[in-house]
Design goal:
Shape: globular
Helix content: 25-40%
Structural class: alpha/beta
Number of strands: 20
Strand content: 15-25%
């Protein structure tokens, strides 16, 4: 179980050009997977982060702990964003209703159009009112703008299609291009990361044995690792040569059957049953056409502007994302939380076994009953008693991988799970510390109903770590 965290070496992305200095960046859609990772990169590059969202600040802060200034934009499709939020050098506008949330009824199409086009119109108008302060507007789009390209290679210069998604993306981009500052429209392919929307939808299907090629499996799929998506986005902020439409995809698209085969191999499952076209149309309706379309897209503009991809081989991507998986029954839970406390205080807090009780929900009746060494260190064994859904249980864990101020891991030796590895990570970020939890767990008797029970156990794990998050926030 290795640390799969990827540190961004931002000098690789924009070392040659720093004339257009960016000190403050406004991000919308920051709570989404893509937005969150971009916010992380902004903070890592020591740029001030400003976030604009629809929630009130109290609700926003409950789910988003990264340090930022926050402004509420309650009705993006109707009103301009607050003037105070526009005192920035760059805007990354990612806000919009998810395309894959529900079937595309006529009402849903109107919602998707309004959430993207109207909010972009209002954002552009606000930028124009910022009297030239803002240097660049970066907006989202999608390679769905090309429609079904068959076996043709598609670049930023390729013809635009005429379906609903293509028209939506085209209208979206046209409004963004009306901005008088330098503007960039990022055309996203399938984004790959452990918590990306695409894989979140695929994993339960594959893990339950229902994964397989879509229809013939001959259609091309254009993908990108989240690190490269973030890397190209950060490069656009600082490289004045980058403007207009940019395909955010790997240089190596693959056919659907290969994508399926490599994903199944990384997940340690079989995926041999093809999904019939008619089944997809019954479940997804009009959106099935997008899922089945063939898009052999290449990142011509990113490559010609000297962006070096970190991930170009899909097999390596899946092996990197799922290197924690020793069995098809293993599951991963991840959580991040930022605290303004100094690193030594944070690590000392987590090194004190007494605080384990403070971080665990009362409903578990969790108690430490013994440990093999006075201070926690590598090799320490800790014994606990707890109740799981009211049933008494004993738990013994072993501390491994002990690296003060950086990380440690506790591994279950005896307890209710067939496997429990909890990696605690700590790193300095924006004057505080980013605390990361990565838990790999496996249920007992996984071969006999493990997938059925997983939904209940997953809910329990989320409850435990939500409480943990709350207590850490109170401690800060």
């Amino acid at each position: 179980f290795t640390n799969g965290n990827h540190a961004f070496n931002l000098s690789l992305y924009f070392a040659p050009v720093m004339k257009n200095e960016i000190k403050r960046v406004l991000v919308t859609g920051a709570t989404g997977h893509i937005g969150y990772n971009i916010c992380m990169a902004i903070l890592e590059s020591k740029i001030e982060l400003i976030v604009l969202g629809r929630q009130n600040e109290s609700n926003f802060r409950q789910g988003f702990s990264l340090p930022c200034k926050y402004f509420q934009w309650k009705k993006p499709a109707e009103n301009l964003p607050p003037l105070q939020a526009m005192d920035v050098d760059a805007v990354i506008h990612l806000m919009g209703e998810p395309l894959d949330g529900r079937r595309w009824t006529e009402q849903r199409k109107l919602e998707l159009h309004s959430s993207r086009i109207n909010s972009t119109i209002n954002m552009v108008n606000a930028i124009e009112g910022a009297v030239g302060r803002i240097k660049i507007l970066v907006t989202a789009s999608a390679i769905g703008i090309y429609g079904d390209g068959g076996d043709n290679t598609l670049t930023e210069r390729s013809k635009i299609s005429d379906g609903f998604l293509a028209k939506l993306c085209q209208d979206w981009e046209q409004e963004a291009k009306k901005s008088s500052c330098r503007n960039v429209q990022l055309r996203f392919g399938i984004v790959l990361a452990n918590d990306s929307r695409a894989l979140k939808k695929m994993l339960p299907i594959f893990e339950n044995g229902f994964g397989g090629p879509l229809s013939s499996g001959n259609q091309w799929m254009s993908w990108v690792h989240i690190d490269d998506l973030v890397g190209i986005t950060m490069k656009t902020l600082h490289d004045p040569k980058l403007a207009g439409q940019i395909n955010i995809v790997s240089p190596n698209p693959v056919r659907n059957r290969e994508f399926t085969k490599l994903l199944a191999s990384a997940l340690k499952v079989k995926a041999i049953l093809p999904v019939p076209k008619i089944a997809l149309r019954l479940v997804l309706g009009e959106m099935a056409g997008v899922v089945l379309s063939s898009q052999k897209v290449i990142p011509e503009k990113a490559v010609s502007n000297n962006y070096t991809f970190k991930f170009t081989n899909l097999d390596e991507v899946f092996r990197s994302l799922f290197n924690w998986k020793e069995s098809c029954h293993d599951r991963l839970f991840e959580q991040q939380q930022w605290t303004p406390k100094p690193l030594n205080d944070v690590f000392d807090f987590f090194s004190d076994v007494k605080n384990l009780e403070e971080l665990t929900p009362p409903l578990l009746n969790f108690r430490v009953v013994g440990k093999s060494t006075e201070n926690i260190q590598e090799g320490t064994k800790i014994d606990y008693k707890l109740k799981i859904r009211g049933v008494p249980a004993k738990w013994t864990s072993l501390i491994t991988n002990w690296q003060p101020m950086t990380q440690f891991e506790d591994v279950q030796l005896k307890g209710p799970y067939a496997k429990w590895h909890h990696l605690h990570l700590f790193r300095s970020l924006a004057g505080g510390v980013l605390i990361e939890d990565k838990v790999v767990y496996r249920l007992p008797f996984s071969r006999f109903g493990g997938n059925f029970l997983h939904g209940f156990i997953r809910k329990d794990v989320k409850t435990i770590f939500s409480y943990r998050r709350k207590r850490i926030k109170e401690w800060c």
